[in-house]
């Protein structure tokens, strides 16, 4: 594999991303050959959750071996599968020991091609989308359900806001922020695949790209109401070891408020790189 050419009009960051790899001990070594090509074509690898099948430590150790010492930074969020066995803290620890930055309501900054790439991450949660969403009303269980999503969205908003001085910003989640990338999934389960609160957080704080997984039957391309490009990188959707995107590294203006495409005025859009 040869590295894609860089854009002539300025520096870019090359972003490789994949989610829903669902590794287990019988998958050992499955993705490593493809991941070892990343230094040729990418500056960072994003993992969009559901890295394991059942959220066990032995499965996490397989994931760690696949991404250890790749030669590019690896940034991840966990997914619902990674929480299934109530060992999410141990899974995060195993990945961290392998050099992965595991995000949950926080962020990381990477120096890339003379600029800074900021990545804010959260697993996110359910709730649905505008006009067809759950609300914080009624039984304690329902209010707790929606508040879980709200807390995740608030953490994502805060983390993205802290990255306002970066030349490029990415929102990394497992659950989807928009319904666009769910097309193909049964509409009855849309409320369990994501929440509009995540999109509100992304638009309110500003980002150049949003990446998620979770929707295996969805589509790759979507967009928030504020104009942020959204990509579903679940492996069953992209059909390869990782998808590749190019982001221009350009000074981001301060956000102007939710729903007004903050941080995107005068910026060229993200480009999806063929592989």
TrEMBL record:
Disordered: annotated segments: 252-275
A UniProt-annotated Pfam family: Metallophos
Keyword Aminoacyl-tRNA synthetase: no
Classification via InterPro entries: Calcineurin-like_PHP (IPR004843), Metallo-depent_PP-like (IPR029052), Metallophosphoesterase_sf (IPR051158), UCP008292 (IPR016538)
Residue ranges occupied by any Calcineurin-like phosphoesterase domain in the UniProt entry: 14-216
Keywords: Hydrolase, Metal-binding
Keyword Glycoprotein: no
Biased composition (Low complexity): 257-275
Protein name, entry field: Metallophosphoesterase
């Amino acid at each position: 594999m040869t590295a894609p050419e860089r854009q002539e009009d300025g520096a870019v960051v090359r972003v490789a991303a994949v989610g829903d790899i669902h590794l287990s001990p019988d998958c050992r070594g499955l993705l490593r050959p493809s991941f070892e090509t990343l230094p040729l074509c990418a500056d960072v690898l994003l993992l969009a959750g559901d890295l394991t099948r059942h959220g066990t430590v032995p499965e996490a150790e397989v994931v760690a071996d696949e991404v250890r010492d790749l030669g590019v930074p690896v940034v991840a969020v966990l997914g619902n599968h990674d929480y299934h066995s109530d060992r999410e803290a141990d899974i995060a620890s195993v990945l961290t020991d392998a050099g992965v930055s595991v995000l949950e309501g926080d962020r990381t900054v990477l120096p890339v091609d003379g600029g800074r790439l900021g990545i804010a991450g959260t697993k996110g949660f359910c709730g649905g989308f505008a006009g067809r969403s759950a609300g914080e009303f009624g039984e304690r269980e329902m209010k707790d359900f929606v508040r879980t999503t709200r807390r995740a969205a608030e953490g994502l908003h805060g983390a993205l806001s802290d990255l306002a001085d970066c030349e490029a910003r990415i929102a990394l989640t497992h659950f989807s922020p928009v319904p666009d990338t769910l097309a193909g999934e049964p509409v009855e389960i849309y409320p369990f695949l994501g929440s509009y609160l995540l999109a509100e957080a992304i638009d309110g704080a500003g980002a150049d790209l949003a990446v998620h997984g979770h929707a295996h039957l969805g589509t790759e391309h979507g967009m928030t109401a504020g104009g942020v490009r959204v990509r579903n990188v679940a492996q069953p959707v992209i059909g390869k070891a990782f998808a590749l995107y190019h982001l221009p590294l350009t000074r981001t203006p301060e956000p102007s408020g939710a729903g007004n495409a903050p941080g995107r005025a005068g910026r060229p859009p993200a480009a999806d790189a063929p592989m």
